[in-house]
Design a protein that fits this description.
heterodimer, A: alpha/beta, Urease, subunit C, domain 1, TIM Barrel, 2 domains, eight-stranded mixed sheet, eight-stranded parallel sheet, 12 helices, 18 strands, globular, B: alpha/beta, Rossmann fold, five-stranded parallel sheet, four-stranded parallel sheet, 14 helices
Chain lengths: 428, 321
């Protein structure tokens, strides 16, 4: 199968490319950019004029709710959401039911992904058995079964000796640790940022120190053990400073931020809007601005969706009793583009944060439009506006705070290994 | 919070969930309405037919004696039919969600819910979800609000002090866990007192408490200077086991109100407590039972104030003659 994507503005941060040109795909791979390969005969031509053509997005943190919670979402429902959002690779957090702590579960995920017709769901293995923080998981076997990294998801490893051992073991197998810093005790089962808003509404608070202290522990252990660490879903100013210092010091650590942390703050949940109940919690305006600066300076170099679809009941209740999380795949690109519009980052940085950098961190041969790489491509119209409503929404989880909002930036085509997995069927 | 949720299109009270979002005029109207009911307590027939034919359900997901009883009496004195339900949290954990409980009761043609719940935001959630003709009164939700308690405290303060403008009020004790304190602070600020001082160790103060519009003090004798109104808060026993305080005796030594410390405040300072009191923990018996104490007056006033709030919430929907 030979495909030409014609006349799009090609943005490929890895190759420092930004020009209006044609992109040529052959047999599931990138064949050439700008000039066609000799004797190239297209089987399919996609018109991308007025649109941006870039590497498909790689999402470092998603939950698709299978196995175990198919009432919330299924692979089938969520891969459509992913494809329609230009996301071509999904990393799946290990807190499924059962937990991804045996090769069998990793195999099951592969099978479910194949059935759903979306081949690039990369399971993240549990760092500890059942995510309980007590015993190591069979990391090598899990790696061999296709797990891309190890993580304890949102669950704590309260015993630092166990965290140390786990990191040493992961390092022995050259496994990346994806770590969401959260000190269990300081978190104190809170549900909102410990600050003026939580105080006013009597909500149990989570201080930012719950994040920064866990982060500091892990940074020290990264140095001690030599484990590669990527910090996931940072939420506060002092986390950015700590990562910055560690990088300056020469520690090979990276970090991402969930897209909603770059747009929302504690004020948005007033008074008890469960759509804004997320973990880590939405923090202050200063934290949000600092996260944006961290992204601009490259301290944080990835944006993830932290996609967490829920059933309706999960969000129906008094705020502290509702389940945290946002169904966020479909708003990932428009909200990232909004950062560009608001001059927080430029378009190259935005696309790199969604493709090139996550690929680098995961050491995937992707995230760029280099000839020979798999043809994972996103084509989007940066100016096209659309309303978030039931007719445009694909995820089974309707838990988005952006319901009825008009957003700018719409994916028109998504290709995974050269195969068109999504095409927008909406008149412009 | 929820200005529009608590008020109907004409700006009249529909639900009573929190002091936040209610203005001085409305709070004063509540106090004035309560004033008109206060005389009834001494009459032979302690009833008015304002809510005759209305059904009020007291929905208590948390234990309470005083609040539930005064709500029940208030409803009865307004001639409403009252049903009091104590729903221990365990029965809801058997499977029925809060929303299902509400839906079932709604199906029985209820006009008003009086809700106490252990989770912050529960009353607000019920008000959002319930049928439009039903009023919801918050009888305490988690650590968020206890607005009827705050209003009966305001009523009691006004009875004694008449004017709020010059008052300096000290709230002493476990502010962190106190929904009463949060509502009192909002009410006192709305009614325009000169100063609210919160006095507690740091472990019992929530983050950025000063943003609620209070000054912070960690020392009781210093904090009591020039104070007109002293509000003591109940100290739960479990605060000792969760490492918030070393011991009851140390707490009493530092923050317990004794006759001696009371002398530091203004000579006519009034002593309040939302109850139930822990004698010898946050307050000495001599003070609790002393001449400056208005603790029992607060309880009596609770009935009139709750009558006023219930009557207003029903009346302003044009459903009461």
């Amino acid at each position: 199968m030979h495909v030409i994507i014609e006349n799009g503005r090609i943005i490929d941060p890895a190759n420092q490319l930004d020009c209006v040109a044609n992109l040529y795909l052959a047999d599931g791979k990138i064949a050439a950019v700008i000039n066609p390969p000799d004797g190239f005969q297209a089987d399919m031509r996609l018109d991308a004029s007025g649109q941006i053509v870039c590497p498909g997005f790689i999402d470092l943190s998603t939950r698709l709710r299978e196995p175990g919670q198919s009432r919330k979402a299924t692979f089938k429902s969520e891969v459509i959401a992913a494809a329609s959002s230009g996301v071509t690779t999904l990393c799946l957090q290990p807190d499924t039911s059962p937990v991804i702590d045996t090769p069998a579960v990793a195999e099951l995920i592969k099978e479910l992904a194949n059935k759903a017709g979306y081949r690039q769901i990369l399971p993240i293995a549990a760092l500890t058995r059942k995510l309980e923080g007590n015993e190591l998981s069979s990391m090598l076997a899990l790696k061999q079964a296709g797990c891309i990294a190890v993580s304890n998801a949102g669950a704590p490893v309260t015993n630092l000796l166990i965290l140390r051992r786990a990191m040493e073991y992961a390092a022995s197998h050259d496994l990346l640790l994806i770590f969401r810093p959260n000190d269990y005790w300081l978190g104190n089962k809170g549900c909102a940022h410990e600050g003026a808003i939580a105080t006013r509404y009597g909500l149990p608070g989570i201080p930012d120190a719950a994040e920064t202290i866990a982060l500091a522990h892990c940074l020290e252990l990264a140095e001690l053990t030599g484990c590669r660490v990527h910090f996931g879903q940072l939420s506060c100013k002092r986390s950015v400073i700590k990562i910055q210092q560690a990088q300056k010091y020469g520690l090979a650590v990276s970090a991402d931020v969930a897209i909603h942390q770059l747009h929302l703050t504690e004020n948005d949940m007033i008074p008890f809007d469960s759509a804004y109940h997320v973990l880590p919690p939405l923090r202050t305006e200063a934290d949000k601005q600092f996260l944006r600066q961290g992204l601009a300076s490259g301290t944080i170099n990835c944006i993830c969706s932290d996609h967490q679809p829920h059933d309706v009941d999960a969000k129906l209740g008094a705020f502290p009793e509702t389940e945290p999380g946002i169904s966020s795949l479909e708003t990932l690109l428009p909200l990232t583009l909004k950062l560009v519009e608001q001059h927080a980052i430029d378009l190259q940085q935005a696309i790199a944060a969604l493709s090139q950098h996550p690929a680098d961190i995961l050491r995937l041969n992707k995230g760029a439009l280099t000839p020979g790489l798999p043809a994972d491509i996103c084509v989007f119209d940066p100016e096209r506006e659309w309303q978030v409503n039931p007719s445009t929404w694909k995820s089974q989880g309707c838990n988005t705070p952006y319901w009825q909002h008009t957003l700018k930036g719409r994916v028109t085509h998504t290709l995974q290994a050269g195969k068109l997995i999504y095409r927008l069927h909406e008149p412009a | 919070m929820s200005t529009n949720l608590q008020l109907n299109a004409e700006g009249k009270l529909k639900h009573f969930l929190s002091i936040e979002g209610l203005d001085k005029t409305l709070l004063t109207e509540i106090l004035d309405t309560a004033e008109s009911f206060i005389g009834m307590n001494d009459q032979q027939i302690k009833k008015v037919p304002l809510l005759r034919g209305k059904t009020i359900v007291n929905l208590f997901f948390e234990n309470s004696t005083r609040t539930r009883t005064t709500f029940e009496l208030a409803a009865k004195r307004l001639s409403a039919d009252v049903l009091s339900m104590s729903i221990a949290t365990s029965s809801t954990s058997k499977g029925e969600s809060l929303l299902d409980t509400i839906r079932n009761l709604e199906a029985m043609y209820v006009d008003m819910f009086v809700v106490r719940h252990g989770i912050s935001g529960a009353a607000h959630f019920i008000a959002q979800q319930t049928a439009p003709h039903i009023s919801v009164i918050n009888a305490g939700d988690g650590q968020h609000a206890h607005p009827t308690q705050a209003m009966l405290d305001m009523f009691t303060i006004r009875q004694v002090k008449r004017d709020f403008a010059a008052l300096r009020v000290a709230i002493i004790g476990d502010i962190l866990h106190s929904r009463v304190a949060r509502s009192q602070i909002q009410a006192l600020n709305t009614l325009g007192v000169a100063e609210i001082r919160v006095i507690a160790p740091k472990t019992l103060l929530p983050a950025h408490v000063e943003k609620l519009g209070v000054t912070v003090c960690h020392d009781l004798p210093n904090g009591l200077q020039d104070i007109d109104v002293i509000i003591m808060l109940r100290l739960q026993k479990e605060r000792m086991t969760s490492a918030l305080l070393p011991s009851e005796s140390e707490y009493f030594r530092c923050f317990g109100l004794t006759e001696q410390k009371l002398k530091i405040a203004k000579p006519d300072a009034m002593v309040m407590h939302p109850g139930p009191i822990n004698r010898g923990v946050e307050i000495d018996s001599k003070v609790a039972d002393g001449v400056q104490s208005v603790i029992l007056k607060q309880v009596s006033n609770g009935i009139a104030v709750r009558m006023a709030i219930m009557a207003m919430a029903m009346q302003k929907q044009g459903r009461v003659a």
